[in-house]
Amino acid sequence: AKNRTPLMAGNWKMNLDHHEATHTVQKLAWTLKDAKHDFNAVEVVVCPPFTDLRSVQTLVDSDKLEIGYGAQDISAHAKGAYTGEISAAMLAKLGVGYAVVGHSERRQYHAEDDALVGAKAKAALAADIIPIVCVGEGLEIRQAGEQVAYTLAQVDGAFDGISEQDAARSVIAYEPVWAIGTGEVATPEDAQEVCGAIRGRLAELYSAEVADAVRVLYGGSVKSGNVATIMAQPDVDGALVGGASLDPTEFAAIARYQS
Ligand code: PEP
């Protein structure tokens, strides 16, 4: 939408080992190359598990692929005694361009709150990694009609203390929890309602320039068959794709939604 470059980001979650990751990225690259995909017109990013990142980096570098890659999480800490965590500096060293922060599965299974999500976003930004900040309501909130207020409170919490300059290069993914992995996709109007409200809140928190610059993605059961109508919404600038991103042909078709 507008002058923002659409971003299609695939969240593989805990799927694909490093051999499978290499095959998947190769197939994705070939499919997009065959279709003469313009990566400047629609950016394509995959977010594999941490253990795959080095293999993906090697492939992307050696074949000069235009596919970007990101992490699914990042530590809020810079270094030290944090067993099991992966720092922003480690990820930057692997050429990682993006980090998903605050995915609903991390909020649910790892008790991540908005303060931690914000700290992770700050850690990413400090290493020049773009955070994809995930927000979105659960089913009960949706049924109560409180999805906008709920989601905007998450935006307020995650962006607390983030500078205007850093906010402008961040990405926000609106992912209604009831639509993730359920096959239940939000209507284009549902997606627009909340994505538009998020942009409005960015204008209030920062400026019209920041609101104009930030890419707001929709996520939740996006497939090649439903992506175009969602992308037609003025405040939707891309998609965060889970299940469908594991199939390179399908994910390529999602990235090619305009054709
Ligand atoms: C996600 O996990 O971010 C997601 C949107 O999953 P799915 O596309 O499978 O609903």
Automatic annotation (TrEMBL):
It is an enzyme of class 5 (isomerase). Keywords: Cytoplasm, Gluconeogenesis, Glycolysis, Isomerase. Pfam families: TIM. Substrate binds at residues 11-13, 181, 221, 242-243. SUPFAM superfamilies: Triosephosphate isomerase (TIM). InterPro entries: Aldolase_TIM, TIM_sf, TrioseP_Isoase_bac/euk, Triosephosphate_isomerase, Triosephosphate_isomerase_AS. Pathway: Carbohydrate degradation; glycolysis; D-glyceraldehyde 3-phosphate from glycerone phosphate: step 1/1; Carbohydrate biosynthesis; gluconeogenesis. One of its GO terms (biological process) is glycerol catabolic process. The active site is at 103 (electrophile), 175 (proton acceptor). One of its GO terms (molecular function) is triose-phosphate isomerase activity. It comes from the Bacteria. GO terms for cellular component: cytosol. PROSITE patterns: TIM_1, TIM_2. Its EC number is 5.3.1.1. It is found in: Cytoplasm. It catalyses: D-glyceraldehyde 3-phosphate = dihydroxyacetone phosphate. Homodimer. Belongs to the triosephosphate isomerase family. Involved in the gluconeogenesis. Catalyzes stereospecifically the conversion of dihydroxyacetone phosphate (DHAP) to D-glyceraldehyde-3-phosphate (G3P). PANTHER family: TRIOSEPHOSPHATE ISOMERASE. NCBIfam families: tim (TIGR00419). This is Triosephosphate isomerase.
